[in-house]
Design brief:
Elements: E1 5-10, E2 13-18, H1 20-45, H2 52-65, E3 72-74, H3 76-86, E4 89-92, E5 95-100, E6 103-109, H4 114-118, E7 125-129, E8 132-133, H5 139-146, E9 153-159, E10 167-172, E11 174-177, E12 181-186, E13 190-195, H6 202-214, E14 222-226, H7 235-243, E15 250-255, E16 263-266, E17 280-284, H8 291-301, E18 306-309, E19 317-323, E20 329-338, E21 354-355, H9 383-398, H10 410-430, H11 440-458
Parallel strand pairs: 13-14, 14-17, 17-18, 18-21
Antiparallel strand pairs: 1-2, 3-20, 4-11, 5-6, 6-7, 7-8, 7-9, 9-10, 12-13, 15-16, 15-20, 19-20
Helix pairs in contact: 7-8
Length: about 450
C-alpha cells in the first residue's frame, strides 16, 4: 500500500502525518460494502427465502468462531440457558463440549447425567446428531440440536480413538441439576472432595461438605481433591477454591492483549480449609480443563499438593461474556491465564507430578503355577485322594452309558453364559466408576497420603 503524508502546521512547526490510518479505515469501509453486497444478493437470489435475522446471526457467529473454538455468538435464548447453567441447573445431556476439526469434541461428561451414565468419555468426537452430520455446523448449532424437551431422546454417533467403528448411543434428555461438590470420608483419616464443575456455589458447597465429614475425621491426615472430568467454569470460583488451600502467594494471572490490563489473583490467609501440615493430592485427567487447571496448577506451583493422574486438557484461555442489548451476547476469548510460576498451559496442559493411568484392580490369573510336591509325578497320594479314586471307580461301574440325543449341549450353554459375563464386565469397565473401591487412581492417592503420614511420623525432626 502506498503511504501518503499530510503536512500540518502546529505551533509554527510542520508535522508529517502518515495517512495509513485513513487508508485502513477506507479499506474497512470497502469490506463492509462487500458484506452488504453479498447480504443483498443472498436475500434476493437464494433458492429459498431466508430471514434477515438468521443471516446476520450466522455472519456474526462465523466471524467469532473463525477466531478460536471457544468464541461464539449466543442469541437471546442461548444466553439465558448459559446463565442458568452457571447457576448449576440446566436441561440437556450433561456434556461439556468444544469444536475440533469440524466435529464436536467432548471435554468431559458431567457426573450423574445421561451422558455419563451412557458411557460418553472425554476425548470422544460426536460426528452425527439424530443422523444429521455435525460437519458444517457451528458449536452453538450443534449444542442446540442436543438440547430439547425433558424425556425426549437424541441419537449420537461417537468416534472414539480405540474403537474401529462408530459408537451409536441413544440418550434421554433430562434436567441436569449439578451438585458441583461431593465429599466423604475415606477410612478414619482422609477426606475425599470431588468437584465436578465450578459454578456460583462451588466454594460455598465445598466448605459445607467438608464441615460435615470433618466430624467423622478427628484425626485428619490428608485430603484428596478430585478434579477428574471437571470441564471448568467460573474463574472467580477457581480462585476461591485455590485460596482455600493456600495462605499467600499468587493463584493465577490473566494477560490480555494490552499489557497494562494484566490481572493477578492472590491468596489470603485466614480462610484455609485445612492446615499446611495436612498433605493434599489433586487427581486430574484429560477431562480436567480450564478452571480445574487453574486450581491444580496453583497448588502444584506452590508445592501445596501433589498432582496425580494423567495430563489435563490444556485450555489456558479466558472467555468474557459480553451482553448485547436485546440481542443475546458474545463469548469472546479475551486473555490467557498463567500459573504462579508463569506457565501458560494453553494446548499443553498440567503434567502430573505422579503419572497414574486408569486401571482396574483385578486378581492375577495364575496360568503358570509354582512347582510344589503336588505337581511331581509318581508322588505319594494322600488318603483323601485314594478314597476319592475308589469312590469314582465304583460309581463308574454302576453308571449306564447315555447320550444327549436332544442335541442340547450343556457345556456350550455354559460357555455362552461365560461370554455374556465377559461382555457385561467389558461394559461396566467402559463406564469408569469414579470414587468407587475399583477406582485405581483414587486408591493410589490414598496409598500416597498414608505413606506420607507414616514417613512424617518416623522421620526425626531436624
Amino acid at each position: 500500500m502506498r503511504r501518503f503524508s499530510k503536512l500540518c502546521l502546529v505551533g509554527g512547526l510542520f508535522l508529517s502525518v502518515p495517512l495509513i490510518a485513513y487508508a485502513e479505515k477506507n479499506n474497512t469501509l470497502q469490506l463492509l460494502d462487500l458484506f452488504g453486497e453479498v447480504f443483498d444478493r443472498v436475500r434476493s437470489d437464494y433458492v429459498e427465502e431466508v430471514k434477515d435475522g438468521d443471516l446476520i446471526e450466522a455472519a456474526i457467529n462465523g466471524m467469532l468462531t473463525s477466531l478460536d473454538p471457544h468464541s461464539g455468538y449466543m442469541n437471546e435464548k442461548a444466553f439465558k440457558e448459559m446463565q442458568v447453567q452457571t447457576r448449576g441447573e440446566f436441561g440437556g445431556l450433561g456434556i461439556e463440549v468444544t469444536m475440533e476439526n469440524g466435529l464436536v469434541k467432548v471435554v468431559s461428561p458431567i457426573d450423574d447425567t445421561p451422558a455419563a451414565k451412557a458411557g460418553v468419555k472425554p476425548g470422544d468426537f460426536i460426528s452425527y446428531i439424530n443422523d444429521e452430520a455435525v460437519m458444517g455446523l457451528s458449536l452453538t448449532e450443534a449444542v442446540e440440536k442436543m438440547r430439547g424437551p425433558v424425556d425426549s431422546k437424541v441419537k449420537l454417533s461417537i468416534l472414539r480413538e480405540d474403537e474401529p467403528e462408530p459408537i451409536e448411543l441413544t440418550l434421554t434428555r433430562a434436567v441436569i441439576k449439578i451438585k458441583s461438590v461431593r465429599a466423604h470420608a475415606e477410612g478414619d483419616d482422609i477426606a475425599y472432595i470431588r468437584i465436578t464443575s465450578f459454578t456460583e456455589q462451588t466454594t460455598e458447597l465445598m466448605n459445607e461438605e467438608f464441615k460435615k465429614i470433618k466430624k467423622d475425621l478427628p484425626n485428619l491426615r490428608g485430603v484428596v481433591l478430585d478434579l477428574r472430568n471437571n470441564p471448568g467454569g467460573l474463574l472467580e470460583q477457581a480462585v476461591s477454591v485455590s485460596d482455600a488451600f493456600l495462605k499467600q502467594g499468587e493463584i493465577v494471572s490473566t494477560r490480555e492483549r494490552d499489557p497494562n490490563k494484566t490481572k493477578r489473583y492472590n491468596a489470603h490467609s485466614g480462610d484455609e480449609l485445612v492446615d499446611d501440615d495436612v498433605p493434599v493430592v489433586v487427581l486430574v485427567n484429560n477431562g480436567s480443563a480450564s478452571a480445574s487447571e487453574i486450581v491444580s496448577g496453583a497448588l502444584q506451583d506452590h508445592k501445596r499438593a501433589i498432582v496425580m493422574g494423567t495430563k489435563t486438557f490444556g485450555k489456558g484461555s479466558v472467555q468474557t461474556v459480553i451482553p448485547l442489548n436485546e440481542h443475546g451476547a458474545i463469548r469472546l476469548t479475551t486473555a490467557r491465564y498463567y500459573t504462579p510460576s508463569g506457565r501458560s498451559i494453553q494446548a499443553k496442559g498440567i503434567v502430573p507430578d505422579i503419572m497414574v493411568r486408569p486401571a482396574k484392580i483385578e486378581p492375577l490369573k495364575m496360568n503358570d503355577k509354582l512347582r510344589s510336591e503336588a505337581d511331581l509325578r509318581k508322588r505319594l497320594e494322600t488318603l483323601e485322594e485314594k478314597k476319592a479314586k475308589e469312590k469314582k471307580h465304583d460309581s463308574d461301574k454302576e453308571k449306564p452309558e447315555s447320550a444327549d440325543k436332544s442335541g442340547n449341549n450343556e457345556s456350550s450353554d455354559k460357555s455362552k453364559d461365560k461370554e455374556k459375563d465377559k461382555e457385561g464386565k467389558k461394559k461396566s469397565i467402559a463406564n469408569e466408576d469414579i470414587a468407587s473401591a475399583e477406582d485405581f487412581q483414587l486408591q493410589r492417592a490414598l496409598d500416597l497420603l498414608r505413606a506420607v503420614n507414616v514417613y512424617n511420623q518416623t522421620t526425626p525432626e531436624k
